[in-house]
């Protein structure tokens, strides 16, 4: 049995799972399909490179770019999503606004930095380990370790911290959350901040592995959406499981069939799940009026 | 003069696409992000039919419309069970599958248009024949302007009449309260299939006209970003009536010329144009969710 596609798929799936969590963190408490994450994802590596060109150490530049996209994410909440929610805007309105932000960000990145693909370093070519028929590159190790740490941290915060408990409470019942006396807008800003930071971190990990360009955000975010639907959008474990499955399916199709059909297969999987198991693998059945 | 006619052709094609999208978005309330794929399907069907069978424009156009209508089942059936955001996500997935097929259905060893090399993949199909009617070939910008304007007027009249008809009012009632419409004994699933078939058929027809005008077609014209652009036309101009899409089509035709007048380089101007559409989407959601001249507020 060839383990290489499985390893490749798991590594990519872990990267996608960061984005899946970023989307889910915003979606559950706010019901905003935060598509603008694709624009933040596109911007983060360019910001890091710009920081490095201004003389910042690479780690400081990476941190600064993550802080910057996180701030941009909160700004979108303050300027658009929160005011729209206060006026009773539906998910459709929020989605269109988020699509607008995505377009502005992706086109802005392209206008400022050009549309040519770039590489951060040749790290993807540095072989780190070979054995049992599997070769792992340095960038894959970085992606796997970085993503696993981030995912573990986010899930731990959500499950074991007071703030995580309140975010889950806001997601379950926003009205009761307010009645008890908590300020939902503060927690909404917090989830947008974390979501932006997660998308920035994911962008840097992907950029280290495969490079980046202004359109680089779209496909990973769409795959993360597929992961959310497949795994179940109501629990972080569902997002992680779904994104891992998407990563593995893409890698297996690419290895055993053809790389050209991996996107079509993944999106077909999403349509099938939406039609047959709309709640996803770890979804819970809810009453019709609660959907 | 030729450039003005070129703009008129583009306005007409945008208008046909916007009117078709208006039928499902403005009248059924279903936000679809796969429309660019259906425009491209029409273009490919036209190109392949003309290339392989040498059929005239009217037959090729009818076939493009028919294939677009049949392929619409891929998004109308998910619409039976999915609503709102989830339906929008499903249409993105369908669009990506269709673009994947257009990009990958190729084999360089096989002739273009054969079963093994149906779309010629990322290389696209070039040299698409110009429209021929009764032995006359449309080659000049003026000829294309007449053809596209005629098509746009027919589509506007047809869809305008449909939307004013009892069937159109049923669509509006389904959009406003699907459960109540079903409780009155109306078959909303059939309504969705019909609306999407007409919408995607018209979009495919517009794609056929566009392919015949440009003489070239490639999968890049069917991407998700193109679908966002098409949605922008309807959201900026407005939906739920005919004058909204007309306004939207006018704006997306004129805006690039305004940006061009500032003397920006082409690539930069394209980025600015798309970023402006994005900014308009955000702005309109705040100040006028029904668009500039529309009636339907997104729900």
Summarize the structure.
The complex is a heterodimer of chains A (291) and B (299). Chain A is mainly α and 291 residues long. Chain A has helices spanning 4-30, 37-53, 58-86, 91-113, 138-160, 162-172, 174-180, 184-210, 218-231, 236-256, 262-276, and strands spanning 127-131, 134-137.
- Low-pLDDT segments, ≥5 res of chain A: none
Question: On the 0-100 scale, what is the average pLDDT of chain A?
Answer: 90
| Morphology of chain B | globular
Round the Cα radius of gyration of chain A to an integer and report it: 19 Å
Major beta sheet summary of chain A: 2 strands, antiparallel
Judged by helices, strands and strand pairing, the structural class of chain A is: mainly alpha
Strand order of the largest sheet of chain A: 1-2
In whole angstroms, how far apart are the ends of chain B? 43 Å
Low-confidence stretches of chain B: none
* Tally of DSSP β-strands of chain A: 2
Largest interface: A-B, 43 and 42 residues
The number of distinct β-strands of chain B equals 4
- What is the rounded Rg of chain B? 19 Å
- Estimate the mean pLDDT confidence of chain B: 91
- Cα distance, first to last residue of chain A? 42 Å
Structural category of chain B is mainly alpha
Largest beta sheet of chain B: what is the strand line-up?
1-4
Number of helices, where a helix is a run of at least 4 consecutive DSSP H or I residues of chain B? 13
How much helical structure, as a percent, in the residues of chain A? over 70%
The H-and-E topology of chain A, N to C, reads as HHHHEEHHHHHHH
What secondary-structure arrangement, pairings included, does this model have?
The complex is a heterodimer of chains A (291) and B (299).
Chain A lengths: L3 H27 L6 H17 L4 H29 L4 H23 L13 E5 L2 E4 H23 L1 H11 L1 H7 L3 H27 L7 H14 L4 H21 L5 H15 L15
Antiparallel strand pairs in A: 1-2
Helix pairs in contact in A: 1-5, 1-6, 1-8, 1-9, 1-10, 2-3, 2-4, 2-8, 2-9, 3-4, 3-8, 5-6, 5-8, 6-7, 6-8, 9-10, 9-11, 10-11
Chain B lengths: L1 H24 L9 H19 L3 H15 L1 H4 L1 H4 L2 H21 L20 E2 L5 E2 L2 E2 L3 H24 L1 H11 L1 H6 L4 H27 L1 E2 L6 H14 L5 H18 L5 H22 L12
Antiparallel strand pairs in B: 1-4, 2-3
Helix pairs in contact in B: 1-7, 1-10, 1-11, 1-12, 2-3, 2-6, 2-10, 3-10, 7-8, 7-10, 8-10, 11-12, 11-13, 12-13
């Amino acid at each position: 049995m060839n383990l290489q596609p499985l390893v490749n798929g798991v590594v990519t799936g872990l990267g996608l799972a960061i984005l899946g969590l970023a989307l889910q963190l915003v979606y559950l408490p706010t019901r905003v399909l935060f598509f603008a994450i694709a624009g933040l994802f596109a911007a983060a590596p360019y910001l890091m490179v710009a920081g490095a060109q201004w003389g910042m150490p690479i780690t400081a530049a990476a941190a600064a770019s993550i802080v910057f996209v996180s701030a941009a994410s909160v700004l979108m909440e303050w300027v658009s999503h929160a005011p729209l929610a206060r006026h009773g805007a539906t998910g459709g309105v929020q989605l269109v606004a988020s699509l607008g932000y995505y377009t502005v960000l992706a086109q802005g990145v392209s206008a400022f930095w050009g549309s040519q693909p770039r590489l951060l370093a040749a790290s993807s070519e540095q072989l780190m380990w070979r054995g049992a028929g599997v070769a792992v590159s340095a960038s894959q190790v970085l992606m796997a370790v970085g993503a696993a740490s981030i995912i573990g941290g986010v899930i731990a915060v959500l499950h074991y911290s007071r703030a995580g408990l309140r975010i889950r409470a806001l997601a379950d019942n926003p009205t009761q959350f307010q009645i008890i006396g908590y300020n939902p807008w503060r927690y909404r800003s917090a989830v947008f901040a974390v979501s932006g930071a997660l998308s920035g971190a994911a962008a840097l990990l992907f950029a280290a592995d495969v490079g980046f360009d202004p359109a680089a955000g779209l496909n990973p975010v769409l795959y993360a959406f597929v992961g959310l639907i497949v795994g179940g959008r109501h629990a972080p474990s569902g997002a992680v499981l779904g994104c891992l499955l998407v990563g593995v399916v893409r890698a297996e199709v690419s290895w055993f069939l053809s790389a050209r059909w991996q996107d079509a297969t993944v999106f077909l999987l999403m349509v099938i799940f939406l039609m047959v198991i709309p709640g996803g693998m770890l979804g819970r059945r809810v009453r019709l009026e609660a959907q | 003069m030729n450039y003005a006619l070129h703009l008129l052709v583009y306005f007409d094609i945008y208008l046909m696409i916007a009117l078709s999208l208006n039928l499902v978005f403005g009248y059924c309330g279903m936000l679809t992000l796969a429309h660019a794929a259906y425009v491209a399907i029409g273009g490919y069907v036209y190109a392949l039919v003309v290339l392989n069978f040498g059929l005239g424009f009217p037959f090729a156009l009818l076939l493009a419309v028919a294939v677009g209508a049949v392929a619409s089942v891929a998004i109308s059936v998910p619409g039976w069970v999915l609503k709102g955001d989830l339906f929008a996500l499903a249409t993105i997935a369908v669009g990506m599958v269709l673009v994947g097929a257009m990009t990958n259905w190729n084999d360089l060893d096989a002739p273009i248009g054969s079963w093994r090399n149906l779309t010629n993949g990322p290389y696209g199909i070039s040299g698409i024949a110009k429209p021929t009617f009764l032995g006359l070939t449309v080659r000049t910008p003026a000829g294309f302007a007449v053809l596209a304007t005629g098509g746009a007027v027919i589509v506007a009249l047809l869809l305008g009449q449909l939307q004013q008809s009892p069937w159109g009012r049923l669509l509006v009632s389904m959009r406003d309260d699907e459960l109540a419409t079903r409780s009155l004994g109306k078959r909303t699933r059939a309504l969705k299939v019909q609306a999407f078939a007409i919408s995607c058929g018209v979009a495919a027809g517009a794609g056929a006209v566009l392919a015949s005008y440009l003489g070239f077609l490639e999968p890049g014209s069917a991407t998700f970003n193109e679908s966002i652009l098409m949605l922008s036309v309807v959201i900026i101009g407005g939906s739920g009536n005919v004058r909204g899409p007309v306004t939207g089509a006018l704006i997306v035709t004129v805006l690039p010329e305004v940006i061009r007048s500032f003397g920006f380089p082409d690539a930069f101007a394209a980025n600015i144009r798309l970023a402006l559409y994005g900014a308009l989407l955000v702005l309109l959601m705040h100040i006028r969710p029904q668009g500039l001249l529309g009636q339907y507020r997104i729900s």
